Amino acid sequence: MSSNWRRTIGNIRSFIGNSTGGLRGGSNLASWAVAGTLAYFLWVKPSQNLKREQQEKALAASLDPNRYIEKRKPIPDPQETGLIYGKKNKGKKPDE
What we know:
mainly alpha
């Protein structure tokens, strides 16, 4: 009876060891620390900064709508007509 739970514990330890790439001890802990640090700085922190900026922008716009200024420049329209979905003036006829 006692060997049954020991076998179960051994199977769980084996599964965890195999799922972490078979690394054991300090190298396992170090690799998880490096992976966690990279994940934090590449995914978690940028998304938190983006949320914070959006909240600050929304707060500034709600407090005084006349004072809020968008920092990005508008994208210029490359067409000659100035219409986004308009027809381009392909051939201008000179005035005679």
